[in-house]
Design goal:
Among the domains are: 33-135, Immunoglobulin-like (Sandwich); 187-253, Orthogonal Bundle (Arc Repressor Mutant, subunit A). Helices cover 39% and strands 35% of the residues. It has 6 helices and 12 strands. The strands form 2 sheets. Strands 1, 2, 3, 4, 5, 6, 7, 8 and 9 form a 9-stranded mixed beta sheet that branches. The chain has a 3-stranded antiparallel beta sheet with strand order 10-12-11. The N and C termini lie far apart (156 Å).
């Protein structure tokens, strides 16, 4: 009995010490991680993580390792299995994002700032895990919303178009009136004219510009007295008109 009692007195403390060492050893070797970080996600799925942390390679710029996309849905997944004594983070999603699903270790709070969703979270003595499903595509707009600009501009375009159409019609009508007013008497209306008078009328029509009596005389090789007599006859019949310019008379076809 004495030997057995001595054995227990020696072995029991040693056994207890071994058990305590086994239980405590992992905690003595465990890394005490912490993180105070800002996570920014752009519209193309690139993630930038900045801030203070002792977790290796947690801070990073413009990486796609934490995001994935299926059709119009994006997933942000940042999961670190190691225990953090403390973590604090702020996530900024692209402007106009809509969150469909969110799961995170610790506590979270969702805020909105000028159309941008901001997720704030913190935790103690647990792993860092953040998973968010969101979408950034615009919602379908109604026909009125999608074509609002065109609906506003359409009346203005119609008014401007109508204005130019009326202006064009007015100018066309004016030109037709002027053309009719400037049309000389056609050759078929030269009834009752002698040969010299017809020659004078044809010359004025071909030139389509006022001529002096001297010009007409030189062109037609008609004596001066005959020119004066026939021009006077045409003027009396209302087929031509004279305009005195200095010492000369300009002869032109009379407008109908």
């Amino acid at each position: 009995m004495g030997i057995r009692s001595s054995y227990h007195r020696v072995c029991f403390p040693f056994t207890l010490l071994c058990i305590i060492t086994i239980l405590v050893a992992p905690s003595l070797h465990a890394q005490n991680y912490y993180a105070d970080i800002s996570i920014t996600v752009d519209s193309s799925g690139f993630v930038t993580i900045e801030g203070l942390t002792n977790y290796p390679n947690l801070t990073i710029k413009n990486t796609e390792m934490y995001t994935s996309k299926q059709q119009s849905l994006w997933v942000l997944n940042i999961t670190k299995q190691e225990t953090f004594s403390e973590f604090v983070y702020t996530i900024t999603l692209p402007k106009g994002s809509l969150i469909n699903y969110i799961k995170s270790s610790g506590f979270i709070r969702i805020e909105e700032n000028l159309g941008t969703l901001v997720i704030r979270g913190f935790g103690e003595n647990e792993s860092l895990s953040i998973k968010i499903q969101y979408q950034t595509e615009k919602r379908e707009e109604s026909f009125f919303q999608a074509n609002l600009v065109y609906l506003i501009l359409l009346p203005a375009v119609l008014i401007v178009g109508l204005f130019f159409l009326l202006l064009f019609y007015k100018e066309t009508k004016t030109k037709k009136t002027e053309a009719v007013g400037n049309t000389p008497a056609p050759q078929g209306d030269w009834k009752g004219l002698n040969h010299r008078q017809k020659q004078i009328m044809q010359l004025l029509q071909e030139r389509n510009t006022p001529l002096t009596q001297t010009d007409i005389q030189k062109e037609l090789q008609i004596p001066k007295a005959s020119i004066s007599r026939n021009i006077h006859g045409l003027e009396r019949k209302g087929l031509i008109e004279k305009e005195q310019i200095g010492m000369s008379n300009l002869i032109r076809l009379k407008k109908l």
